[in-house]
Write a structure and sequence with these properties.
Keywords: Membrane, Signal, Transmembrane, Transmembrane helix, Ubiquinone. The protein is α+β, with helices and mostly antiparallel strands. 28% of the residues lie in helices and 24% in strands.
C-alpha cells in the first residue's frame, strides 16, 4: 500500500488558505468579474495536482502526495492569470508553476513561489497571450474590504511569522508611491496613484499571499525588511521604464537573488555534485519531456495552413476617389476642463453607411467623420463609377458641421426604407445632440433630396450614440429603429435634468463640486452607468413611437458600441446582439414581437456574461449550418489578454438558452491577438464559397496632437487608473492627460480568410500593410464587378478606399426587395440559400440580408455568392422572404446581379 505524504494536520495553515482561495475563485466566476470558465479553472487545478503528484512520486518519494499546495497554486493561478476563452492557454501557467518546485531547488526546497514563477513564465513565454489578471476583475470597494479582512486573518490568525515583512513592505511601498506621485504630478493626479494601489485587491493578494510564502521568503526580521525594501526598490526602477506587472518582476528578482545566495551558502555541498546533479538533471529532463510533449500536441492541433491568396486590395488615391478628410479642431472646442481626456472620450464615431441613395445601381457612401474639418463632417458621396465619388450636400446637416457644441456630432448612420416607397432614408445617431431622420424624396419628386423629419417622427431625443440599426420587431412589414447610447445623456447628482455635453459642462455650484466630471465608466468589466438603449416602433407615415423600457425586455445602462440584428434561432423574428464596452454584451431573442428575452450563461465568459470590451457586433453564417454566427471585436493587449469573441451558433429552431452559443475564436484562430480591435465585416473576398472577414485595429495615435518625435505610451497611465475604485476612475478629472500620447496607435488591420474550420490572416499577402487606428470596416462592390471592395474609416486620418483585384472566379449577386407589406422593402431578414450542388464547398451557402452589421459600418445590402471555378451557367437559389413562409426557388444565370422583388 502506498503511503500518504504531507497529510495536513488540523492546524495546518494551508487549509484556511485553501478555503479562502476556493472562495475567491467561486465568487470570481459566478458574480465578480473573473474571465475564467469552470473548465479552465478545472484544467488548471488538474495540471497542478496531477503534475505535482507525479513529479513527487518519481523524483522525491515513492509516496502519494496529498496535493494541498498544488491546489493552492492552481487556485492562485486561476485568480492571477488572464487569457482568452479556450483550454490550451490554461495549461501554461500551472505547468511552469509546478515544474519550478522540482527544477529550481536548493537543499530540496524550491526557491520560487510556484504561483509567481507560473505568472512570470507565462508573461515571458506566451508572447502576450497570457497576462496577469486585471485589478478591475474584483469589482468595487466592498471586495477591497473583504480582502483587508482576509489580510488580517492571514496576519494574526495564522502563524506564518511574516508580520515584519508585511509591515515593512507596506511602509516602503507607501513611501515609494509618495515619490512617484510627486514626480508624476503633472501627468496624473496623486490621489489616483495612492487610491489605485491601496484600494486594489490584487495588491493585497500580492502582499499577504505571494511574498509571505514561508518556503520562498526571508525567515529573520532583518531579512524580511531587506526583502521588502528590495522588492519596492526594483519596482520603482521598473516604473521608470513604464513597465507593467512590476511587482511580479520585482519579487521574481528577489527570489532569484535569494536562490543564488542560498546556493552560495551551500557551495560546499555542491562542490561534489554528482548525486545532486543527477537528481536535478532527472527533474529537468522529466519536466522538459512533459513540456515538449504538450508543445507538440498544441502545434499538431493548431496547424493553421494559410495557402495562396487569390485577391489583392489596391488603394484608390483620394485624388481619384474624391473621398478625403482633413484635421478638425473638435478636441479644442470641448469644454477646457475636458481637454485632457477628450481624445479618449471622442475615440469612436467615424462611421460609414453604404446604400444606393439615388437608385442608379451603384453603392453610395455616407461618412460621419466627426473629428475631421467642417467641410468633411457628415457628408454624402455619390458613386459615379470607376471609384469616383462626388459630394452631395445635405443642408439639413450644416448645423452639425458648423456648431457641434449646440447640435452635436453625427456619429452613426443607417440607410433604410422607412416608408417602403422604394428609396433609402437616412437615420443618424448623434453624439451630444438630438437624433436625426432624413426622408429621401427621390420617389416623391424624381430627384435626390432629403427632408428632416426627426422632430415630427418622434426621434429627436437627446442622445450620445455611435450605434443605430433597424429591424422589423413584430413582422408587420415596417422597419423599427434601435438607438444605442454609449454614455450617460444626463449628469447625475443634480435635482434637475442636466444634459451631458462634452462641449459645455455646467459650472460648479459650490466649493469642491465635481458632479460634472462623473461621466466615465464606473467599472472596467461591468459598467452600468451609461444610459438606456432606445427602441422605436414604426407606426407608418413617417411616425415612430418609443417602446417603454419595461416592454422591450432591455435592462441596464451599458456603454453600447454596436448592435447587430438577425434571426439567430430560426423562428422568423429578428433578434439582437448588443456589444458593450466595459461590460458584458447582451443577447436578446425576440419573443415573437412582444419584446425581447435576455439570454445569459451561468458563469463568467459564457454568452451574456463576458467581462470584455465589446467594440463590434457582426452577424454571418461562417460554417453554413443555417444559423448566423456572431463576431465581437475586443481588446487583446497588455493588461487585457482577452481578444475577440466568435460565438458559433448551434441553436435548434426556437432554442432560447445560452448553450446554443460557443465562443470558438481561439480554436478557429480568429482571436485578433495583440491588437486593439474595432469594426469587422463579413464577406466572401476570394469567392470560394466561404465567408471571410476583415478586422479594424488600433486605438489612438498622435496624428492630430503630435508633441514628441516618438509618441509616448498612454497605456501605462491607463494601467494606474485601472487599479482604482469607481469613485476615482469614474471622474474625468482624475484621469491622466492623454494629449500627445498614443494607445496602440500603429496597428495593422487583418484579413481573416475562412479555410473551413479555421481562419488565417492574409492581410500582407492581400496588400494591407498600412498601420494606424481604424474604426469602421465596410465591404461593398463599388464597381459592380462581382467582388467585394473595401472602405476603412479612421478617427484621425482620411478614409481608405480599396479596389478588390481578384483572380477570375464565378459569382452571382442578388438585390432583393420585399413587397412592403408582409416583408419590408429592404428585405431585411430575408434568407437566400445556394444549393450544395452549385457551391464550391459542396455544402449549401446560407446568407441573410442585414442593415447595419458591425461597428460604425453598413455594408453593401446585396447578397454575393462565390462559386469558385464555376464561372458560367446557372445555379439554384432558394429565397425565404423576411425569414418566414415558404421558400421560393429560382434558377439564375451566374456572373451578374439579379434584382428580385417579392410578389
Amino acid at each position: 500500500m502506498i503511503a500518504l505524504d504531507r497529510l495536513p494536520a488540523k492546524n495546518d495553515p494551508r487549509l484556511p488558505v485553501l478555503l479562502l482561495q476556493c472562495t475567491f475563485v467561486f465568487c470570481g466566476i459566478t458574480f465578480w468579474g473573473f474571465n475564467r470558465s469552470p473548465a479552465q479553472v478545472g484544467l488548471i487545478l488538474a495540471v497542478c495536482v496531477v503534475l505535482d503528484c507525479t513529479l513527487h512520486y518519481l523524483l522525491r518519494k515513492k509516496t502519494l502526495l496529498v496535493p494541498i499546495s498544488g491546489l493552492i497554486t492552481g487556485l492562485g493561478l486561476s485568480v492571477l492569470t488572464n487569457f482568452s476563452h479556450g483550454l490550451w492557454l490554461a495549461l501554461v501557467p500551472p505547468f511552469f508553476a509546478t515544474a519550478s518546485k522540482y527544477v529550481f531547488t536548493v537543499n530540496g526546497r524550491h526557491i520560487y513561489n510556484p504561483g509567481l514563477f507560473g505568472v512570470i513564465a507565462a508573461l515571458v513565454l506566451s508572447d502576450g497571450m497570457i497576462t496577469p489578471s486585471p485589478a478591475y476583475q474584483w469589482g468595487g470597494a466592498g471586495i477591497t474590504a473583504f480582502f483587508i479582512a482576509t489580510a488580517a486573518l492571514m496576519l494574526f490568525a495564522l502563524n506564518i511569522r511574516r508580520s515584519v515583512l508585511i509591515a515593512s513592505f507596506l511602509v516602503f511601498y507607501a513611501m515609494q508611491l509618495g515619490l512617484r506621485a510627486w514626480l508624476l504630478r503633472h501627468h496624473i493626479p496623486p490621489q489616483t496613484l495612492f487610491m489605485g494601489a491601496f484600494s486594489s485587491p490584487a495588491f493585497y493578494l500580492f502582499t499577504f499571499f505571494m511574498i509571505t510564502d514561508p518556503p520562498t521568503s526571508a525567515q529573520t526580521p532583518k531579512g524580511q525588511v531587506f526583502m521588502a525594501f528590495f522588492i519596492v526598490f526594483v519596482d520603482l526602477l521598473l516604473h521608470k521604464f513604464q513597465s507593467f506587472s512590476t511587482l511580479f518582476y520585482a519579487a521574481f528578482a528577489y527570489m532569484t537573488l535569494r536562490g543564488l545566495w542560498l546556493l552560495w551558502q551551500n557551495r560546499a555541498r555542491y562542490a561534489r555534485p554528482a548525486a545532486i546533479l543527477r537528481q536535478e538533471a532527472k527533474a529537468l529532463l522529466l519536466t522538459g519531456l512533459i513540456g515538449l510533449g504538450g508543445w507538440g500536441a498544441y502545434r499538431a492541433t493548431h496547424a493553421f495552413a494559410g495557402g495562396e491568396t487569390h485577391f489583392r486590395f489596391v488603394r484608390i488615391p483620394a485624388a481619384q476617389s474624391g473621398i478625403g478628410g482633413t484635421q478638425g479642431d473638435i478636441w479644442e472646442r470641448t469644454d477646457p476642463r475636458m481637454h485632457h481626456i477628450a481624445k479618449w472620450l471622442l475615440s469612436v464615431g467615424d462611421a460609414a453607411a453604404v446604400a444606393d441613395a439615388d437608385n442608379d445601381g451603384l453603392p453610395d457612401i455616407f461618412l460621419t467623420q466627426p473629428l475631421k474639418s467642417e467641410q468633411d463632417r457628415a457628408q454624402l458621396f455619390l458613386n459615379k463609377g470607376n471609384f469616383r465619388f462626388e459630394r452631395f450636400d445635405i443642408p439639413q446637416l450644416a448645423p452639425h458641421r458648423t456648431h457641434p457644441e449646440q447640435h452635436g456630432l453625427i456619429a452613426a448612420a443607417t440607410w433604410f426604407d422607412m416608408d417602403n416607397d422604394g428609396d433609402r432614408d437616412l437615420l443618424l445617431g448623434t453624439g451630444f445632440g438630438k437624433g436625426r431622420l432624413l426622408r429621401n424624396e427621390l420617389k416623391e419628386t424624381g430627384r435626390l433630396n432629403f427632408t428632416e423629419i426627426g422632430r415630427q417622427s418622434g426621434l429627436d431625443n437627446y442622445q450620445i450614440s455611435v450605434a443605430t440599426n433597424v429591424l422589423d420587431l413584430d413582422n408587420d412589414g415596417k422597419l423599427d429603429i434601435f438607438v444605442g447610447n454609449v454614455m450617460q445623456t444626463t449628469l447625475g447628482g443634480y435635482n434637475r435634468p442636466v444634459p451631458y455635453n462634452i462641449f459645455k459642462l455646467p459650472a460648479p455650484e459650490y466649493e469642491g463640486d465635481r458632479r460634472m466630471f462623473n461621466v466615465m465608466h464606473q467599472s472596467w468589466h461591468n459598467a452600468d452607468n451609461a444610459d438606456e438603449n432606445l427602441l422605436f416602433r414604426n407606426l407608418g407615415g413617417g411616425r415612430f413611437a418609443r417602446i417603454p423600457q419595461e416592454q422591450t425586455g432591455f435592462s441596464g445602462k451599458r456603454w453600447t458600441m454596436a448592435a447587430a440584428t438577425g434571426d439567430l434561432n430560426g423562428d422568423g423574428y429578428a433578434d439582437l446582439y448588443i456589444a458593450n464596452d466595459f461590460g458584458p454584451d447582451e443577447l436578446y431573442l425576440n419573443r415573437q414581437g412582444k419584446g425581447f428575452l435576455a439570454v445569459k450563461g451561468s458563469f463568467s465568459g459564457s454568452v451574456g456574461r463576458d467581462t470584455y470590451k465589446g467594440m463590434n457586433a457582426t452577424f454571418g453564417d461562417l460554417d453554413d449550418n443555417g444559423r448566423p454566427d456572431i463576431h465581437v471585436s475586443n481588446v487583446h493587449e497588455k493588461l487585457q489578454a482577452e481578444g475577440s469573441l466568435l460565438w458559433m451558433n448551434y441553436s435548434q429552431p426556437g432554442q432560447t438558452d445560452a448553450a446554443a452559443f460557443r465562443d470558438e475564436a481561439a480554436r478557429r484562430n480568429a482571436l485578433n491577438e495583440r491588437r486593439f480591435g474595432w469594426g469587422a465585416a463579413f464577406g466572401d473576398l476570394d469567392r470560394d464559397g466561404r465567408l471571410d472577414f476583415v478586422q479594424a485595429n488600433g486605438m489612438a495615435d498622435d496624428a492630430y496632437d503630435k508633441k514628441e518625435a516618438v509618441c509616448p505610451d498612454y497605456w501605462y497611465w491607463n494601467a494606474q487608473i485601472a487599479l482604482t475604485n469607481p469613485d476615482v476612475h469614474g471622474y474625468a478629472d482624475r484621469w491622466a492627460d492623454v494629449r500627445g500620447r498614443c494607445v496602440f496607435g500603429s496597428e495593422a488591420n487583418r484579413i481573416y480568410m475562412n479555410k473551413g474550420g479555421y481562419f488565417t490572416d492574409a492581410a500582407e499577402q492581400a496588400g494591407w500593410t498600412e498601420k494606424g487606428t481604424s474604426r469602421g470596416m465596410i465591404l461593398a462592390d463599388f464597381d459592380n464587378d462581382g467582388d467585394l471592395d473595401s472602405l476603412v474609416t479612421h478617427m484621425t486620418a482620411a478614409p481608405s478606399l480599396y479596389r478588390n483585384d481578384s483572380a477570375p472566379a464565378g459569382w452571382i449577386g442578388l438585390q432583393l426587395a420585399g413587397n412592403g407589406t408582409s416583408c419590408n422593402r429592404d428585405a431585411q431578414g430575408t434568407r437566400a440559400v445556394l444549393s450544395a450542388e452549385d457551391s464550391p464547398t459542396a455544402s449549401a451557402q446560407h446568407r441573410e440580408v442585414y442593415a447595419n452589421n458591425g461597428l460604425a459600418a453598413q455594408n453593401d445590402p446585396r447578397i454575393l455568392f462565390g462559386l469558385g471555378s464555376r464561372r458560367a451557367g446557372s445555379v439554384r437559389i432558394g429565397i425565404q422572404w423576411c425569414g418566414r413562409g415558404p421558400v421560393q426557388s429560382y434558377t439564375l444565370q451566374t456572373g451578374r446581379y439579379h434584382r428580385i422583388t417579392q410578389q
